[in-house]
Amino acid sequence: MDTAQASMPLSSSQMEQLNLLVDGHRQMPGGLLPLLHAVQERFGHVPPSAVPVMAQAMNLSCAEVHGVISFYSHFRTQALGRHLVQICQAEACRACGAEALMQSAERMLGCAAHETRADQAVSLEPVYCLGLCASSPALQLDAKLHGRVDEAQLRRLMAGLNLLNEEQA
Amino acid sequence: MSSSAPVKVYVPCDSAALAQGADEVAQALSEACSARGIAIELVRNGSRGLFWLEPLVEVETPQGRVAYGPVTAQDLPSLLDAGLLQGGEHRLGQGLTEQIPYLARQERLTFARMGVTAPLSLDDYEAHGGWAGLKAALAMKPGAIVQSVLDSGLRGRGGAAFPAGIKWRTVLQAESAQKYVVCNADEGDSGTYSDRMTLEGDPYMLIEGMAIAALAVGATRGYVYVRSEYPHACATLAEAIRLATAAAYIGDSVCGSAQAFHLEVRMGAGSYVCGEETAMLESLEGRRGVVRAKPPLPAISGLFGQPTVINNVITLASVPIILAKGADFYRDFGMGRSKGTLPFQLAGNVRQGGLVEKAFGLTLRELLFEFGGGTRSGRPIKAVQVGGPLGAYVPESQWDVPLDYEAYAAVGAVLGHGGIVVHDDTANLASLARYAMSFCAIESCGKCTPCRIGSTRGVEVIDRITGAPELREQQVQLLRELCDLMLHGSLCAMGGMTPYPVLSALDHYPQDFGLSAASSENEPALKV
Asked: Of A158, B2, B463, B489, which alpha carbon lies 20 to 30 A from B52's?
């Protein structure tokens, strides 16, 4: 994952990669979302400095591209922490303690929901439904799904990645 | 057992099985068997949908498939010692899979192959009845295919329950050089996962349904809009499309016919409102997912301004069996104007959560107790939200109403996409009503004022009801007026149906809002 500051200009090699992605999507009908997915997958986020490049290639204004990025919660303009913890907060998970699980995660990690910890180790986010509603509460830790998570399991998962806050560890 | 053929062992690859450690079980099984010098054929199947038993390991025996679950990697030595590969007795044993009561009592039409086959195996798909509907459709004229879907009584399974055949007929009759079939797989409703299971567990069924729709209306391109929260589903479907295209079921020619059908997966980006069909079209066209005003109907002017069939995953996945077995076969299931089956999804605080496909007409009480076995916490059930975040909270007095679109509408509730979320008596319905409003505020596309502003005002009003007793009566009145405005003034179901959970909570659980039970009795029930 690219950890460069979001506002920094892209390096020449990054620009080269961006141009390749842009070329691959220029002709695709409705190609802006697929392009944004590709850019985010490559850079870990959508760097604001990539917006003018994408806008010009897709024959859109920067405002239109920015508008699309800001509409969709999946797209982010800043780098995440090295790990991403997403805890479902939708009804089926709330019915099995998802709110308390989120509070536990905030305490264990020393990181508030929607935020990235100061040491860049971890980001904590709510998510609205992973489709694991019969196995609630559910969470996703990086690419891996976990169902029927209780506080003890959450602690094991966090400890396994050395993510516990110092006071907790 | 004969030493020649290795025993087939099934370990599901469905997300919900993976979330309970199915990959670890599969790996431990392979390692343990090779350490013992036993050859097995490990099959990664879809899930049967009995999620409290996942990972559900099945072994093929002469009597049929024998199930064990929930299995952890640590259980494997004892399972192998107990004769797992011969279907031996073990404390995790569930007997013959097909005879597990939860499964045996279902009417699985759409989900007949679910968990039985390996999702990406074309051989498995064909051996279990796959492509029979498409082959039947290839021998029919487009109008006859549409008529068959009309006659089956199939209605949109995404929630709106609009007759699928009428949409198809409109697109068929529209004149255009380019038409589209779009599958709405933006399954954002909490409590629902039947689309996800289909994409991950039986993706060719959806591809077949879409190909039939394409033949019926003369569409040569299709898109499946899958939410980004479903990465496994996206990956499996994309691979299935690649394999089905390579095998010439779709692509430049549908099964050797004169018609082309090119299919593509497009990923959403975390917006709930993109499950609304016109917002989804905007998103597919590369824009913000802002709802379009109707008319024009998407069937006349949809994707890129062209005539477009838009159906939910389960609607399209129900089409192959209708064409294969006939409209009458399908229509004979169900009741009233709700024909066929619905894959209900039991979720939340329920002991036996999972997928239950049954004909319309059974009751919530049967689902909750005979299938679900009550709550997982062991406490009494207090409220059941049927139909996703925009569905009503159904109190016990209504649990015997048949699950039928019209019967539910008559009590101010909806079946929606068939999601059923169970809450025990620790739930606070005022807090859930507040959540419904705040979810609407987060997810509103912003186009219409009742939804965009009403949801934020709704959160504030509920906070005053629960936090300021002296204002309570007046604020309850205000909440009802606000809900009435959202219900009748919103452009789409996002703002238009958020009042369902809010008002049903207020009507049926007034105590949670600090009101006396009696004070609400004179209030009007939810009126649509």
From this structure: A158
